[in-house]
Amino acid sequence: NPAPFFSEQSCAPPCWETLTPGTSTTDDVLHVLSDLPDVVPASVSATTPYMHGGHQVSTVNWCLNPPSPQTCGYTVLFDDTLVGIAFSPEGNTTFASAVQELGPPDHVAFEQAMWQAICSVSLEWDDIAISATASLRNSCPSGVAPATGLAVSPLLRVETLYYAAPDALHPFDTGPVIRPWTGFAEGPRAYS
């Protein structure tokens, strides 16, 4: 079985199932996914590469048994080199459990989706190139503008875990508002 979020496996995050951001290639991704018995073979698909910021970008998508949105993932490749692995962690992984396993993050990033009225909130660990993301299901809080750090609820459920190559937590440079981690908050200051 593929190793779930925070489990013991053959390599340490940001490596997953021997796939290592910064070194693995498209062929490596396809080979590893084809060898994992819980990957649904018909779900593995590579996108047609396109140009972005001077890089040829492609993704490889997959789902695990049983097929559901909670068990799917994708990889992002720039110029045939893996820069990130994204997947939904199993169960009810919260920001609190992510911090318990990984320690305090370096940053909190807020990003408003242009096509939807939702705000993504990510806890980011720079030294291990991992981010854990949740959606607020509404617009980003107006308090994002201050330079002071922002506190979020520990109860936010992690929807996407992203393992990145070094210095590649934001491969598309979409401009999230990044603030220092100030810890969790409850009540009026907690964004949830």
Description:
The model is unreliable at 143-149 and 187-192 (pLDDT under 50). Strands 1, 2, 3, 4, 5, 6, 7, 8, 9, 10 and 11 form an eleven-stranded mixed beta sheet that branches. 9% of the residues lie in helices and 33% in strands. It is mainly beta and 192 residues long. Strand 7 and strand 8 (130-135) form a beta hairpin. It is globular. The protein has helices at 26-35, 95-102; strands spanning 45-46, 50-52, 55-63, 72-78, 81-87, 107-112, 119-125, 130-135, 150-152, 160-164, 177-184. It starts with 25 loop residues before the first helix and ends in an 8-residue tail after the last strand. The chain is built from two helices and eleven strands, in the order αβββββαββββββ.
Structural class: mainly beta
- Low-confidence region ranges: 143-149, 187-192
Give the proportion of residues in helices.
under 10%
Order of helices and strands: HEEEEEHEEEEEE
Oligomer: single chain
Radius of gyration from the alpha-carbon trace, in angstroms: 17 Å
Shape summary: globular
> What percentage of amino acids are in beta strands?
25-35%
How many beta-strand elements? 11
SS summary, helix count: 2
Largest sheet: 11 strands, mixed
**What is the residue-averaged pLDDT?**
79
Instruction: Report, as a whole number of angstroms, the end-to-end distance.
Output: 33 Å
